[in-house]
Specification:
Blueprint lengths: L3 E9 L2 H9 L4 E5 L13 H13 L3 E6 L8 H13 L4 E4 L14 E3 L8 H10 L1 E5 L6 H10 L3 E8 L11 H6 L16 E4 L5 E6 L6 E3 L4 H7 L3 E4 L6 H20 L4 E3 L4 E4 L13 E2 L21 E9 L4 E5 L7 E5 L5 E10 L2 E4 L10 E6 L1 H7 L4 E13 L3 E8 L4 E7 L8 H13 L6 E9 L8 H21 L19 E2 L8 H9 L3 E2 L14 E5 L3 H4 L17 E4 L4 E7 L4 E6 L3
Parallel strand pairs: 1-2, 1-11, 1-12, 2-3, 3-4, 4-5, 5-6, 6-7, 7-11, 10-14, 21-24, 25-26
Antiparallel strand pairs: 7-10, 8-9, 8-28, 13-21, 15-16, 15-20, 17-18, 17-20, 18-19, 21-22, 22-23, 27-30, 28-29, 29-30
């Protein structure tokens, strides 16, 4: 491998999806541990993880396991037992949030700092490097400039999200679900209150916005930004979505694979982080997969409105406008539709409605329901029937380039294989030489049998046969020779796979903060000891310990409703902002908004109900 490797990292809700992601071009996948994952419903058995590791390592692809919740004292022993099993499975890295684990006897598995650790500053990242992390997953809210500053201060691998759902709060700094129903995002069971409806009122009780999804965001899409992200210092590009289905992961992974490959083709100082070439039987299209509308978020700073206030559901791609209606059908100007497509639209009252296309007959479209549909309404396709049907079938084949050299003499035949990474294998059979009656036919048969790589992980780049006129051999002998050679080559690839060993050495590097509150997310005495050893005092336990959340800051967000509603005094100079305090109400509870204009952040506080 030559150059700086760039890694495309895809999510794996389960091992099958992980293998599909690798087939469609992922250099690495991340998958949930059986317990203690930030996506509790996406846990996987150790056996499944080990199977995925074996599959991935054939392609020099890596598998990272997420065990990224905060833990109680009682859970630490079970977590440690799992971590040892994860290490023994061959996994390449462990994604964690709870720093208490660094006070324990961990196996030498590389540690990856979850984005839930609130990785927003160079000081924090430098500290994580000093205490033993190999990689940091950066906060989604960072801009190019902020990433560049971090890159200049550390040698750690930097990973960032490039696609998928966005949490409105900084990850790890949201406590609304915990306060609302004792389901903590930091414990893997977020109830997603950010996707609920709210009414916003001002300090005089006047309603500013009524019954909208005021804390719901669009989905992240940084396609087209790979060159800029590389220039800023990113080497791992992460797709969000351990709850997404296989079709979604296939499409998004393939789309970013193509984009990263295009960049590498014009940048000789960079290379792929894994082996093999993916051949697709479809054209990836990010607009034809689940999305709430796309945003670049804050990668360029505060430049766009990122809220999806009308609906938290997927709207998909705009495909046209209703131009006419008839008895059970309508006409539309726009893209062509197909039977089985799912369309949606916003009714006159602003509610998202939808229907299935039962039949398309020339310019007439017969839907499953006409309710609420009016002339002039804009239509979106949120289920592309033909595209999804195609993705339900095998759509990606990944193969490693191999060169084969066949030799034959009076007493032996041999086949030597060399793959694209330089691994070699050779198998020799004792076989008597038998001159061919028709040398040209025998050579063709020999070449055909040796070239037939079938369902192996290899693709033939070159085949040489010596002598030019080989002797006759049974086809079964040639097949066995090819099969055993390639099997040996695969064993060699796995045996020579470069596994990272990264043991943590305890030290007393000062933590960047000297005093912290519940937002340090400390739920066990191990974490208390860790912070104490590094010179920091944690004054409060995590809210998950059962602390009363009344009046507490439940969210810290870079998303700002002032900006979203054109009432920001900094960016909208003529804005006449409604009187503060601004109050959110979900029908049962109230939340107070506080705006920190110096930090350009918004805080959501729990009111007293």
């Amino acid at each position: 491998m030559k150059g700086i490797p760039l890694e495309l990292l895809a999510p794996a809700g389960n091992a099958q999806i992980g293998k599909a992601a690798i087939d469609h071009g992922a250099d690495a996948v991340y998958i949930g541990a059986p317990r203690f994952s930030a996506r509790a419903a996406a846990g996987n058995s150790i056996a499944d993880i080990a199977g995925l590791v074996h599959y991935a390592h054939q392609f020099a692809a890596r598998v990272y396991v997420a065990l990224n919740t905060i833990l109680t004292n009682e859970e630490i022993p079970s977590a440690l037992d799992l971590i040892r099993q994860i290490y023994d499975s061959g996994a390449d890295g462990l994604i964690i949030q709870d720093l208490g684990l660094l006070e324990c006897d961990l196996p030498p598995i590389p540690l990856i700092a979850s984005t839930q650790m609130h990785n927003t500053t160079s000081e924090k990242v430098k500290f994580l490097e000093a205490v033993g992390f190999r990689r940091v997953i950066l906060a989604r809210e960072l801009s190019f400039e902020e990433i560049r500053v971090i890159r200049a201060q550390t040698t750690l691998e930097l990973e960032c999200f490039v696609h998928g759902a966005l949490c409105v709060s900084y990850s790890g700094q949201c406590y609304m679900s915990q306060a609302l129903c004792q389901r903590s995002g930091n414990r893997g069971v977020c109830a997603q209150p950010c996707r609920h409806r709210y009414t916003l009122s001002d300090g005089e009780g006047r309603r500013i916005v009524e019954n909208k999804y005021l804390l719901s965001l669009k989905d992240l899409n940084l396609s087209g930004m790979i060159p800029d992200l590389v220039a800023a210092g990113i080497t791992s590009f992460k797709i969000e979505g351990r709850y997404k289905d296989e079709a979604h992961i296939k499409n998004v992974t393939a789309a970013f694979r193509q984009e990263i490959d295009r960049f590498i083709a014009g940048s000789p100082q960079h290379c792929r982080a894994s082996s093999g070439k993916t051949i697709l039987s479809f054209d990836p299209d990010l607009n034809r997969t689940f999305n709430r509308g796309y945003t670049r978020y804050f990668i360029h700073g505060r430049k766009e409105k990122v809220g999806a206030m009308d609906t938290p559901k997927s709207t998909g791609k705009a495909v046209g406008t209703v131009t006419g209606k008839g008895d059970g059908f309508f006409r539309m100007q726009g893209e062509g539709l197909r039977n089985g497509d799912g369309l949606c639209f916003f009714t006159s009252s602003g509610v998202l409605a939808g229907f299935r296309v039962n039949r398309v007959a020339q310019d007439r479209i017969y839907p499953s329901s006409m309710e609420g549909l009016e002339i002039g309404m804009r239509l979106y396709r949120n289920r592309d029937h033909e595209f999804l049907r195609r993705l339900e079938k095998p759509t990606g084949i990944r193969r490693i380039g191999v060169t084969l050299r066949f030799r034959q003499n009076e007493h032996q035949i041999s086949l030597e294989a060399t793959d694209e990474d330089g691994h070699q294998a050779m198998v020799t059979f004792d076989v008597s030489y038998e001159a061919a009656r028709n040398p040209e036919t025998v050579r063709g048969q020999t070449a055909a049998q040796l070239s037939s790589l079938g369902n192996t992980i290899y693709r033939l780049e070159e085949l040489s046969i010596f002598p030019e006129s080989p002797g006759f051999l049974p086809l079964s002998t040639l097949n066995q020779l090819r099969r055993e050679t390639l099997e040996q080559l695969t064993r060699t690839r796995l045996e020579e796979y470069p596994r990272w060993i990264y043991a943590v050495v305890p030290n007393t590097t000062p933590y960047p903060e000297k005093e912290m509150d519940y937002r340090a997310n400390v739920l066990n005495t191990y974490a208390q000891r860790f912070y104490s050893r590094h010179g920091a005092i944690v004054r409060e336990s995590a809210l998950e310990a059962g602390v009363d959340a009344s009046g507490t800051r439940l969210m810290t967000t870079k998303y700002c409703l002032r900006y979203q509603l054109d009432a920001c005094p900094r960016f909208t100079r003529q804005a006449a902002a409604p009187k503060e305090p601004w109050i959110l109400n979900d029908g049962a509870r109230t939340y107070h908004l506080i705006f920190d204009c110096q930090r350009c952040e918004m805080y959501v506080h729990k009111g007293k109900n």
